[in-house]
Design goal:
The protein is mainly α and 193 residues long. The protein is built from 6 helices and 2 strands.
């Protein structure tokens, strides 16, 4: 592999160094989790929730929460990343983590307002950051669909497990741990250039 310095030319094409996001850009992506991903999720959710109403109540809820929500949330969280270009793998991964964290913080406070226990919601806040970073890794490595589907499946396992109360402590915690470990492993595979 030929390494070129910023501004060098290869076959007449000027090569630019990978863009490294500034603190303002990092903050922008964190806030995007609130101002872009959450409203997009809620808007699309209005339509998908109506699709599920033809089913009996329990099945409608399982359909909305375990099938549609993971697809919608994982897409909405990754959406701000698709316009990025010239980023290193590591910076796209980091931006994805921050968007997911912004989304997770927003969801954390919504659930706390409805009486959910902090001890349950705190790891799920980080879960959103980890699952979005999985999709971000796919974007960075030109395999967005493969890693998006993986993040959706992990998210679906978590959501589906929540329907079985104590089973969540197996399936849900398992999904959270898988997301954390996979995110950490993928982070280690990213490069800064």
């Amino acid at each position: 592999m030929i390494e070129l310095e910023d501004g060098e030319k290869l076959d007449g094409v000027k090569i630019a160094a990978p863009h490294k996001p500034s603190l303002r850009e990092l903050l922008f992506f964190f806030i995007s989790g609130f101002i872009i991903s959450v409203p997009l999720t809620l808007y699309i959710g209005l339509f998908t929730d109506n699709l599920c109403t033809v089913l009996p109540s329990l099945y409608a809820e399982v359909c909305a929460v375990s099938i549609f929500a993971p697809f919608i949330e994982e897409f909405a969280k990754a959406y701000p990343l698709f316009y990025r270009h010239g980023e290193s793998d590591r910076s796209i991964f980091t931006l994805g983590f921050l968007v997911g964290l912004g989304f997770g913080v927003s969801e954390f406070f919504v659930y706390l307002a409805t009486g959910a226990p902090i001890i349950i919601r705190l790891p799920l806040m980080i879960f959103h950051a980890a699952s979005t970073s999985i999709t971000a890794y796919g974007i960075a490595t030109n395999r967005p669909l493969q890693f998006y589907v993986l993040a959706v499946l992990i998210h679906a396992l978590n959501n589906f497990s929540a329907f079985f109360d104590s089973f969540w402590f197996i399936g849900g915690i398992g999904a959270v741990v898988i997301a954390y470990l996979l995110s950490w492993n993928l982070y280690r595979k990213t490069s800064v250039d």
